[in-house]
Amino acid sequence: MDMTTDTSRESTKATRRTAPGRLAQALAAAWQHKWSVAALILLFGAALLGALRLVLGPEVVVAQVVRGDLVQTVVASGHIETPYRVEIASQITGTVEDVLVQEGEQVRQGQKLVVIEASELQAAVVQTEGAVAQAEARLRQLQELTKPAADQALMQAQANLLNAQAAYDRASKLAGSGYGTRATLDDATKNLDVARTQVRTAELQVFTSSPTGSDYVMAETQLAQARANLNTARARLNYATIVAPRDGVLITRNVERGMVAQPGKAMLVLAPKGDIQVVVQIDEKNLGLLTLGQKALASADAYPDQRFVALISYINPSVDINRASVQIKLLVQDPPDYLRQDMTVSVDVEIARRDDAIVVPARAVHDPGSATPWVLKANFGRAQQQPVRLGLRGTGQYEVLGGLQPGDLVVPLTLGVKAGQRMRAVLP
Questions:
Q1: Distance of alpha carbon 7 from its chain centroid, rounded?
Q2: Looking at beta carbons, which pairs linking 303-311 to residues 24 or more positions away fall under 8 Å?
Q3: Which SS3 state, helix, strand or coil, does residue 298 take?
């Protein structure tokens, strides 16, 4: 009995002595196979994750239905232009002596642009100035010499007439009493007729040299014609210097020194300063959404971050059959300085607005153009098909009139999620 007990004790002690060694051996063996153990752990984790994905579904980045202000717009692109452009041409034929402006230059009304050689025109002005001076001298001659001389001649003729009348009366009385001769009476009668004729002639001379007389009127007419010819000559001389008709920007220059200017042939094109408009083509299906006076936000492609306001001022009554579009023009009331002629711009025409509306991203709506649009709504771990009723369409958003509430989560179309599929909704 004692021997057995001692043997057991010895065996237990031997086991205690060998246990640390065995543990060390086991750890050493595990360290030698560490990569196999790590692989087993990773494999187990992947299997567990796959099982969770099968049970809970994949993670899906969803969008949230929210409240916000929604603006429905019609988007189009076009270009900048002035309501009209001024083609500047010469009114006379002549050789271009100098061009004083460059293309793209800002000009002011009355600024000199082109000079045409004008020596012949200057000579014509001198010649017509001489004709005017001559006509003025002729009129002064009538006023200062001819009319006074005619008045004096009339007075003299009237005095002669009085003398002739008195002589006639004496001769007639003497002839009647028998004391005078017939010859004396005949001489008195002839002298009286001559005196009367001289009076009528003097009266005519006074009348023709008076302001209502033919000589005076003719002199005034000649003076007026001379002055008109002078004005014409001066005007033609002014045509030799072409000036800007109003403020603006020269957008085209087709003239150089030495060229022969021809009447009616445009040398310069001026874009007048002031009103600027945006000309765009709108799809004809949006024609019913547009009205005069609607506000739009426009931005130049060269300055996309700087937007300016424009108002619809014109809607073309006809449709371009080739492009199925309608031309509209928008007036820019306060144009920014960076706008240039023919610059490309994008326009958003505001056609409707909703404040504090329920909105859903357009990328989550299926069949928006049909009578039964719908979305995939994240509901208790599954994608549930949900019919919706849509209102306005804004930029990348729809107004929701029924079927969704703020806070609902919807699945974008591009993720390929099917109705009824398990999923884990994740907000971005």
A1: 115
A2: 303/338, 304/346, 306/336, 306/338, 308/332, 308/334, 308/335, 308/336, 309/333, 309/334, 310/277, 310/278, 310/347
A3: strand
What count of other Cβ atoms lies within 10 Å of the Cβ of residue 88? Answer: 20
Q: Note the pLDDT tens digit of each residue in 47-94.
A: 555 555 555 678 889 999 999 998 888 888 999 988 778 889 999 999
Select from 265, 262, 273, 259 the least CA-distant residue to 99: 259
Integer CA distances (angstroms), 136 to 6, 51, 149, 208, 248, in order: 166, 118, 19, 17, 44
- Helix (H) / strand (E) element for 218: namely helix 214-239
d(CA 25, CA 305): 72
The span from the CA of 186 to the CA of 362, in Å, is 128
299 burial via Cβ count (<10 Å: 0-12, 13-18, 19+): middle
Give CA–CA dist 303/136, Å, rounded: 66
DSSP state of 179: S
- Residue 66, beta-bridge partner list: 359
Which is it for strands 424-426 and 59-61: parallel, antiparallel or unpaired? Answer: parallel
pLDDT in tens, 133-168: 999 998 888 888 888 888 888 899 889 889 888 888
- Give the whole-angstrom CA distance, residue 331 versus residue 309: 9
Compute the distance between CA of residue 103 and CA of residue 2 in angstroms, rounded to an integer: 127
Name the CA radius of gyration of the chain, rounded: 55
How far is residue 218's CA from residue 322's CA, in Å, rounded to a whole number?
68
Strand-strand pairing, 86-89 and 63-64: unpaired
pLDDT tens digits for range 358-417: 999 999 999 998 999 999 999 888 899 999 999 988 888 999 999 999 999 999 998 888
What is the identity of the amino acid at 139? L
Dist CA 374 CA 376 (whole Å): 7
In sequence order, the 6+-apart residues with CB closer than 8 A to the CB of 291 are: 312
Which residues are within 8 A (CB) of 330 and not within 5 positions of it... i.e. 6 or more apart?
277, 278, 280, 296, 298, 310, 311, 312, 313, 347, 349
Cβ burial, residue 352 (10 Å; 0-12/13-18/19+): middle
Whether 425 and 60 have beta carbons less than 8 Å apart is answered as: yes
Q: Give the global pTM.
A: 0.51
> Tokens at residue 64, please?
């949230």
